[in-house]
Design brief:
heterodimer; A: alpha+beta; CPE0013-like fold; three-stranded antiparallel sheet; 2 helices; B: alpha/beta; FAD/NAD(P)-binding domain; 3 domains; five-stranded parallel sheet; 23% helix
């Protein structure tokens, strides 16, 4: 039995995941918590948010995120893809900045208009 | 001097101000003005590039800039006007209605008259000065939010070896952020025996990256000439006093402070509006009106929220009430005062007028310590008018209880909200 705190939403439910019983989840407040509990044990993923340099914007950094969760173990390599990257204004929220991150199918997309 | 008139004037263009403006327009205010001191609206959300915003309001997970962007768009789709780069100096509230005094680089000094004003100035961070950490005064000591702006908007790397004092959400978020940017976050040091941040942030910001959290510890020394070189960390006892013989040093070049937020109420105080010393924000009625008729307040200027979604909901109510006030609606009738009982640090609102309360009034509060199974009790004198059970409570997580109008009508002029362990409750029942 593994105890986890659900990170799907800010409520932070205290989950119990039974690894010997097909990762059955208890303590979850909603269906997404059950899904998270199982996934966190078998294949943990995270949405990564960061910034890239931008030329011609009102600030020198433009915020980005992965448009879907990527495997936790790829976080470091994914961050490397952003290092030194410089985009040019104008960008729109949702514009793809880096496509198909490390073959995951996820993209880094801009999270503000700039 | 030309004085333009607006039905509703909103001070501050962060999440609270934008929601109040949208709501005021929706509730019939024809002329609405948002006054923002920064060069763009969105407030602190612009530097909160992490996700987790909007789950309640938009039913999807957004980053801070995305959440701000959606509200900026909603404001653009109304008739509301937005002035940026404009600092409000103060408000006057003569019989003839509120007057806002402000100044901007382009237009110099200006005044606006308004039917109603909504205060949405948000909050700011407590600094090193506020908590009096002894030691040298080198560079490299700054608040977590300042660091967040440097890193996420201005593009400065603030340091390589980082210690964070305080485990509030901003500190936790910055622990992860600095790690992703290649810095080494050596420790997160928390004075209390528990974290004041959201549980999910402990997990995904500290545990994910193996950052140690020192509970019941604090920074007792800052050392460095020119740049920070090391900090001294000591364990504290249950009275939060450093324990002799427990001190150890951590070599670092940066100390980030995440030691609390203070509602920014200079304008409120100057206007003579009553401040609740527990929240450091204005005392408000059920519709978010302050003790000054026609002046409303919402968001972090009233009390520090955990979630922007709750700021939005509160500000929607304030904007609606401000629009109604500007249109001539006045509320009278008796006032119920909410009193903090055992285990309750504050309530918002502090006052409820049942005649204006609608079907249900939501009361927000924080408990004083982390708790397991508990009962929230709402008492009028010796009579219990409502009770609510909770499996788990923490000071870092704002509580919300609904008080139906029918119950308020039965209550006296003072209602006490308290929290106690569920066991005792069972005994009494």
């Amino acid at each position: 039995m593994k105890e986890l705190i659900c990170i799907i939403c800010p409520k932070g439910c205290h989950l119990k995941v039974d690894e010997e019983n097909g990762c059955a989840v208890t303590g979850n407040g909603c269906a997404r918590g059950a899904e998270y509990g199982k996934k966190e044990i078998t294949d943990p993923t995270r949405v990564i948010t960061s910034t890239v340099g931008i030329t011609g914007g009102i600030y020198s950094r433009c915020p980005v995120k992965t448009d879907r969760p990527i495997p936790k173990k790829l976080i470091g390599d994914a961050m490397e893809l952003l290092r030194g990257l410089e985009i040019t204004s104008p960008v729109k929220t949702g514009d793809v900045v880096v496509s198909d991150i490390l073959g995951t199918g996820a993209n880094f997309v801009a999270t503000r208009d700039m | 001097m030309t004085e333009k008139y607006y039905d509703v004037a909103v001070i501050g263009g962060g999440p609270a101000g934008l929601a109040a403006a949208v709501s005021a327009c929706e509730h019939g205010a024809a002329k609405v003005l948002v006054i923002e001191r920064d060069k763009v609206v969105g407030g602190i959300l612009n530097q909160c590039i992490h996700n987790g915003f909007g789950l309640h309001y938009f039913k999807e997970e957004l980053t801070g800039p995305e959440y701000a962007g959606r509200f900026a768009e909603m404001v653009r789709n109304t008739a509301a006007e937005v002035v940026t780069g404009t600092m409000v100096l103060g408000i006057d509230t003569p019989e003839s209605g509120p007057v806002i005094r402000c100044v901007s680089r382009e237009d110099g000094y200006r005044e606006y008259r308004a039917g109603a004003v909504v205060l949405c100035m948000g909050c700011r961070e407590r600094t090193r000065g506020a908590i009096a950490i002894p030691g040298d005064r080198p560079s490299g000591v700054m608040t977590a939010g300042t660091a967040q702006r440097y890193v996420n908007m201005e593009g400065y790397m603030i340091g390589r070896r980082i210690v964070i004092l305080g485990s509030g959400d901003i500190g936790l978020i910055m622990a992860r952020r600095m790690t992703l940017e290649g810095a080494k976050v050596l420790a997160c040091v928390e004075l209390c025996p528990y974290s004041n941040g959201l549980n999910r942030n402990i997990v995904q910001c500290l545990e994910d990256y193996g950052i140690p959290l020192y509970l019941s510890h604090t920074v007792t020394g800052v050392h460095g000439r020119g740049r920070l070189e090391r900090v001294t960390v000591s364990r504290v006892d249950d009275k939060r006093r450093p324990v002799e013989g427990t001190a150890f040093d951590i070599e670092c070049d940066t100390l980030l402070l995440s030691v609390g937020l203070i509602p920014e109420n200079e304008i409120t105080r100057d206007a003579g509006i009553e401040i609740d010393r527990r929240t450091n924000g204005p005392t408000v009625y059920e519709n978010m009106m302050t003790t000054r008729p026609g002046v409303f307040a919402c968001g972090n200027v009233v009390h520090v929220h955990d979630l922007v979604d709750f700021v939005t909901a509160e500000s929607m109510r304030a904007g609606a009430a401000a629009a109604e006030y500007a249109a001539g609606k006045r509320v009278s009738g008796r006032v119920i005062k909410l009193v903090n009982g055992e285990g309750v640090n504050y309530t918002v609102p502090q006052m409820i007028r049942p005649d204006n309360a609608g079907k249900v009034t939501e009361v927000f509060f924080r408990t004083n310590i982390p708790r397991k199974k508990s009962v929230i009790r709402v008492m009028s004198g010796d009579t219990q008018i409502a009770s609510f059970r909770r499996e788990y409570m923490a000071p870092g997580e704002m509580e919300k209880i609904p008080l139906p109008r029918v119950l308020l009508d039965r209550a006296g002029d003072t209602v006490t909200v308290s929290v106690e362990p569920a066991g005792e409750a069972a005994d009494r029942a």
